[in-house]
């Protein structure tokens, strides 16, 4: 089964800017996949279309077989998204941010609390669960979004620049956590502009530049070419 199949994906923003020029991408179930590219390359646009937050202007996207245009709810159910920007209510208690999101996906309250406890503990946020998210450090907010993305047990976890602005020690512990999540069977796609991050985590990689895929190969093959 393919976790993601993108064919001829195009995006022209309303101001006429062509952000994606017909890209093809395919990610196997179980993969740990990097979409690498400089700022402005089109990574967030691609993620936005996969998660139905941005409308495409051409091509097709399937998530575990579900077409994002024809069956957006099914596609979204498969996905846990960790966006680049903090997009939770900063005044809400940390624990509630997690359990509310799970509720939105139809997870039973008791199960939502169990999963929330599990991930908050794993990510070092359990002691913070009663406090509002506004009091968390940047790295903690990032981890909060990771916990939130996992409580409905998505088949595909997508992280947009997950360690941007995170110090090296925390980055390494987040990497270890993500490796574990992947080892348990969750397909992971991340965007990054650090080759080191892609190298450390990912088996396969696509490099995007100015709205075009300029390389799509295994990490191992890429590294032997450098
Ligand atoms: P990346 O995530 O790789 O940094 P983005 O997908 O955010 O790249 O952006 C790709 C290009 O599209 C950039 O040049 C950006 O300025 C442009 N862009 C992004 N959003 C919009 C928008 N809403 N309207 C017009 N142009 C946009
Ligand atoms: P208390 O234990 O302080 O009497 P509650 O258990 O009702 O109160 O929860 C208070 C806050 O802690 C709520 O914001 C709730 O979402 C959060 N919380 C409690 N248990 C969990 C849990 N297992 N996972 C996540 N958040 C939790």
From TrEMBL:
Keyword Nuclease: no
Location of the ABC transporter domain: 4-226
Keyword set, alphabetical order: ATP-binding, Nucleotide-binding, Transport
Protein name (record): ABC-2 type transport system ATP-binding protein
GO molecular function: ATP binding; ATP hydrolysis activity
Origin species: Thiohalomonas denitrificans
């Amino acid at each position: 089964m393919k976790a993601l199949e993108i064919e001829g994906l195009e995006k022209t923003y309303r101001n006429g800017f062509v952000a994606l020029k017909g890209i093809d991408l395919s990610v196997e179930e179980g993969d740990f996949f990097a979409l690498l590219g400089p700022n402005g390359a089109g990574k967030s646009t691609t993620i936005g279309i996969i998660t139905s937050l941005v409308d495409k202007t051409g091509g097709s996207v399937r998530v575990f077989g579900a077409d994002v245009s024809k069956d957006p709810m099914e596609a979204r159910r498969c996905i846990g998204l960790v966006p680049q920007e903090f997009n939770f209510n900063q005044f809400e208690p940390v624990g509630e941010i997690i359990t509310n999101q799970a509720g939105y996906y139809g997870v039973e309250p008791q199960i939502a609390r169990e999963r929330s406890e599990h991930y908050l503990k794993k990510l070092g946020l359990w002691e913070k669960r009663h406090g509002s998210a506004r009091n968390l450090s940047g790295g903690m907010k990032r981890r909060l979004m990771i916990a939130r993305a996992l409580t409905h047990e998505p088949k595909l976890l997508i992280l947009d620049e997950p360690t941007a602005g995170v110090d090296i020690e925390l980055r390494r512990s987040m990497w270890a956590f993500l490796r574990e999540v992947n080892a348990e069977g969750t397909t992971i796609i991340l965007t990054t502009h650090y080759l080191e991050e892609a190298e450390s985590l990912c088996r396969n990689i696509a490099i995007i530049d100015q709205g075009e895929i300029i390389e799509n190969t295994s990490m191992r093959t890429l590294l032997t070419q450098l």
